[in-house]
C-alpha cells in the first residue's frame, strides 16, 4: 500500500464528569442500614446516596472500601437491581437480585449474603419522572386564499404584479 501522511490539530473534549446524585432529586435515593428491624432514626449503621439509573456504579462504603451497585426504578416506582458487587461489571454480586423495595422510608428486612443473615434498611427518594413524548412541532396555518389583486389608479401600462409579489412575500414571511 501507499503511505499516507497526516496530522491532527485541536484538543480533545474533557471526559464527562461522573454522574452526581443529590439526595432528594428524582432518581437519587438515600439508603440507610440499621442494626435491627425497628429502623429507628439515629441508629443507622450507614447511609449512602445512590443513583438509580440502571448503570453499575461504585459506592464508597468508608474505610477505603468500595462496592458496586446497579439499581433502577421499576414501573411501580420501586428500587430493583443488584448490590454488593465486586467490580464495575456488576456480574459477581452478593445481592444478585434485589426484589422491589419501596422508596417511602419504610423499614425493609431481607436476607443478605450466602448465610442469609437478615439486613434492615430503608430507601427514601423518588423515581425520575417518566419521559414524556416530545411535543409535535406546530406549523403555521397556510393562507386559505391567495393574495388578491387590488385595482389601483396606476397610470396605463404600469405593472401591478410588483404589488402582488410584495404582498405574497409579506404573507409568506408571516407564515414562516
The chain-level structural class is mainly beta
- Termini separation comes to 54 Å
Sheet with the most strands?
4 strands, antiparallel
Cα shape: globular
* Average of pLDDT: 73
Strand order of the largest sheet: 2-1-8-7
Number of strands: 8
The radius of gyration over CA amounts to: 32 Å
| Residues in helices, as a percent range | under 10%
Task: Note the total helix count.
Answer: 1
Order of helices and strands: EEEEEEEEH
Could you give a short description of this structure?
This protein is mainly beta and 176 residues long. The chain has one helix and eight strands.
Descriptive account of the structure:
β4 and β5 (79-85) form a beta hairpin. The protein has one helix at 161-175; strands spanning 28-34, 46-51, 57-62, 65-73, 79-85, 93-101, 108-112, 117-125. The chain is mainly beta and 176 residues long. The longest helix has 15 residues, at 161-175. The strands form two sheets. The chain has a four-stranded antiparallel sheet, with no helix packed on it. A four-stranded antiparallel sheet has the order 3-4-5-6, with no helix packed on it. Mean pLDDT is 73; it is low at 130-135 and 158-176. It is globular. The chain is built from one helix and eight strands. The two termini are 54 Å apart.
